[in-house]
Amino acid sequence: MPHMTIEQAAKHAGVHRTTINRSVKSGKLSAITLSSGKRAIDPAELERVFPSNRPNASERSKKMIQSASEQKHSIEHALEARITSLEKQMDEYRDRERRLLSLLEVKLLEPPPSKKKDKKNKKGKKKK
Q: Is the Cβ–Cβ distance between 31 and 41 less than 8 Å?
């Protein structure tokens, strides 16, 4: 099979052409330079680096979207649980505030405690 252009190799591998160019530049993927100055990839070399049994770009995108969606749902669930917990806590604080206010009102409405008169005369002696 003849060599592929960078664009053909990218399409065949299901990746962007910059991915092919980076792989060539890093030495991960070997390429030859044609007389026109363009690079070409041997199909066997492309298969070695980008096996055809790996998911293509659209499958990878679908998996990434599904993973992001699952993470979003997980975060939403955690946030909903936290909101519920905080709402319950606020209700408890409101109840506590109501109880304390009613206790305070009861205490304010009670007559002041009467002062007990000491049964001592002016000189400090007890009356008989």
A: yes
Determine the topology of domain 4-49 in CATH.
Answer: Multidrug-efflux Transporter Regulator; Chain: A; Domain 2 (1.10.1660)
Half-sphere exposure of 41 (CA within 13 A, CB side): 28
Whole-prediction pTM = 0.42
| Residue-level pLDDT, tens digit, the chain, 128 residues | 689 999 999 988 889 999 999 999 999 999 999 899 999 999 999 999 988 776 666 677 778 888 888 999 999 999 999 999 999 999 999 999 999 999 998 888 888 777 766 555 555 555 55
